[in-house]
Write a structure and sequence with these properties.
Length: 417
């Protein structure tokens, strides 16, 4: 959006805020804001019709102080180095605040996956993965799915990496199919975490989640299952949307029916029987208890924040609220459960998947969900305790915990040479 800060500027502002709160010095601030490694690669693809298209791919490892780098791979036309840097930085703080031993990374290719055939997607993924081989690995950097990629993408990356290195390396990616070392419960982990953190916030403010009204922007891997879990737990999901637009029914929607419609029918939620059509901007301004932005970053800005009527915003997406919007929402008493806490369930179960791969010993879905619930509950408790103690927002508190833990790791390790 014109005039809105870029995701990279937003990430820098949020870091500066945490650095000031923690009283870190300028040198540490520089260390924390500078990505450790950034790779830009050209990704040539021979199209099915015989002509050549060259895409640009990225992988940024933002910080490796607490462990190997971890973060998703995004296929989207607007993906660029600045966006990938911002998302990599968010991953660093997210892993630290959730309390798992990883640094942060992100990757992506600037392309629209729906414009490629399955064979083209496989070739472009394998070529990109081959470029990443020197950088990634189970003990170096572990990619996962993000916008526009899925478990099949991860399977191709795992296979390409394994062929190049000459041995099977299931732990090089997470979010894989279960047949090749994926974890039970991974597919729904981010959404389950969104639900758990939404409920923790509602509980903290004395609101019963049963009957609470919910709107979800984005009906992909995170949004669709978040809508389903919230519905199953007794919330009334009144609106959902995807890139084509949204649907609304004040009596409540049937998320499972919508999933079937998107998967097996029209490919979009728009036009689902028994619903009214709304736009994405209208969805963000609905009078609901809980708003879950689960599509892209920067959708709640200084322009529309004054009109947001939800009492709680639970950030399924990364960076959906700009810094200016954050301040406006805080002043208006809207509780924002920040991305690095709210959607940390995905990376938490990615960590569980990696642990299982490294041990070649797999857990049941109940065990995964139980451990996820324990991690999310602890993370929420720590963030909300600090927010209350320091009289800051949940976002600032989460950033302070994440940034503080990474700074501590740097101090403890010391500087080489
Ligand atoms: P996805 O590609 O599966 O789904 C994205 C959804 O957003 C789709 O329904 C798409 O139609 C919709 N969308 C795209 N552009 C839009 C627009 N301009 N307006 C409205 N809707 C739009 O992606 P995902 O994995 O569900 O990721 C969604 C968000 O969650 C991203 O910000 C991602 O970084 C974040 N996230 C994902 C995971 C994960 O495990 N997949 C984990 C943490 C955070």
């Amino acid at each position: 959006m014109l005039g809105s800060p870029s995701p990279w500027q937003t990430a820098q502002t949020q870091l500066a805020d945490a650095v000031a709160q923690l009283g870190l010095d300028d040198g540490m601030h520089d260390l924390l804001r500078t990505p450790r490694r950034s790779l830009t690669v050209s990704v040539p693809l021979l199209r099915d019709d015989g002509h050549l298209t060259v895409f640009t791919g990225y992988r940024v490892q933002h910080n490796l102080a607490r462990g190997p780098a971890k973060g998703g791979i995004r296929y989207h036309p607007s993906t660029d180095l600045d966006e990938v840097k911002a998302l990599a930085m968010l991953m660093t703080w997210k892993c630290a605040v959730i309390g798992i031993p990883y640094g942060g990374a992100k990757g992506g290719i600037a392309l629209e996956p729906s414009m490629l055939s399955r064979h083209e997607l496989e070739r472009v993924t394998r070529r990109y993965a081959a470029e990443l081989v020197p950088l990634i690995g189970p003990e170096k950097d572990i990619p996962a799915p993000d916008v526009g990629t899925d478990e099949q993408t991860m399977a191709w990356i795992m296979d390409t990496y394994s062929i190049h290195t000459g041995h099977i390396a299931t732990g090089v990616v997470t979010g894989k199919p279960i047949s090749i070392g994926g974890s039970a419960g991974r597919a729904g982990a981010t959404s389950r975490g969104v639900m758990l953190s939404a409920f923790a916030a509602l509980r903290e403010h004395g609101v019963d989640h049963r009957g609470a009204t919910v709107a979800v922007q984005g009906f992909g891997k995170v949004g669709a299952l978040a809508a389903q879990y919230l519905h199953d737990a007794g919330c009334r999901v009144v609106a959902v949307s995807d890139v084509k637009g949204g649907v609304y029914n004040p009596q409540g929607l049937d998320p499972l029916g919508l999933v079937r419609e998107v998967r097996d029918g029209s490919g979009t939620v728009v036009g689902y029987p028994g619903t009214d059509i709304i736009t994405n901007p209208e969805l963000l301004e609905l009078d609901v208890d809980v708003l879950v932005p689960a599509a892209l970053e920067g959708v709640i800005t200084a322009e529309n924040a004054p009109r947001v009527r939800a009492r709680f915003i639970v950030e399924g997406a990364n960076g959906p609220v700009t810094t200016e919007a954050d301040q406006i929402l805080e002043d208006r008493g809207v509780v924002v459960v920040p991305d690095i806490l709210a959607n940390g369930g995905g990376v938490a179960v990615s960590y569980f998947e990696w642990v299982q791969d490294m041990q070649a010993y797999f857990w049941t879905e109940d065990e995964v969900n139980e451990r996820l619930a324990a991690l999310m509950a602890r993370a929420y408790r720590e963030v909300s305790f600090l927010a209350t103690e320091r009289k800051v927002s949940l976002r600032t508190a989460a950033q302070m915990i994440g940034v503080g833990r990474v700074a501590e790791a740097h101090r403890t390790r010391g500087l080489y040479p």
